[in-house]
UniProtKB/TrEMBL annotation:
Transmembrane segments: none annotated. Pfam families: AHSA1. This is SRPBCC family protein. It comes from Rhizobium herbae. Belongs to the AHA1 family. Coiled coil: none annotated. Residues 30-161 form the Activator of Hsp90 ATPase homologue 1/2-like C-terminal domain.
Length: 187
């Protein structure tokens, strides 16, 4: 069974509408713990990116990605992402911050027209439903990259929260990007 074949269908992101991907994960709570992994630099760097976030409307967001060092035994990125082999910096602006339930900010402002990321947290007993919605994605290629990226990063978060060793980032991202390519219609 391949890496992608072992993933439950419910864990894949939903493309809705064509410029948005939404991915949900049910994570071990409490809600304050998940909020901390979204907003505190030392915790966020374990699954996504380091860098400070000013938790107020108009606050700055700085993500310092180093996906090649995010997980153990990781390979270099595929040729398509060779420019991402080392640290990458990305900036945004907080739109809404309502701890510990909602965080919305712009994404990659330095790339021109920014997209938008929304994190919704909802308690479900002792667990927390985290919904990540990334919208205003301008191309199919970007959609495939973001869908695979969020899927991979959220799987790493779930593994870290459950004291499991995550799969290496780049091989998983590559397999997921190919799978999303089958799921996301061409323009």
């Amino acid at each position: 069974m391949s890496l992608v074949e072992s993933i439950p269908v419910a864990e894949f992101g939903v493309i809705n509408p064509k410029d948005t991907v939404r991915i949900e994960r049910l994570l071990p709570g409490p809600i304050e713990r998940i909020w901390a992994y979204l907003t505190e630099e030392q915790k966020r760097r374990q699954w996504m990116a380091a860098g400070p976030i000013e938790l107020r409307a108009g606050g700055t967001v700085c993500h310092l990605f180093d996906n090649s060092r995010l997980t153990a035994k990781d390979d270099r990125p595929p040729a398509k992402y060779a420019a991402h082999a080392g640290p990458i910096e990305s900036h945004g602006t907080v739109i809404t911050c309502d701890p510990p339930r909602l965080l919305v900010y712009t994404w990659a402002e330095e790339m021109g027209e920014p997209s938008e990321v929304r994190f919704d947290l909802a308690e479900q007993g002792s667990k927390v439903l985290l919904t990540v919605s990334h919208s205003r994605i301008l191309s199919r290629d970007a959609m495939l990259s973001f869908a695979a990226g969020w899927h991979t990063h959220l799987d790493i978060l779930a593994d870290r929260l459950n004291d499991r060793e995550p799969s290496p980032f780049w091989p998983k991202h590559t397999a997921l990007e190919a799978e999303y390519g089958k799921r996301v219609p061409a323009a």
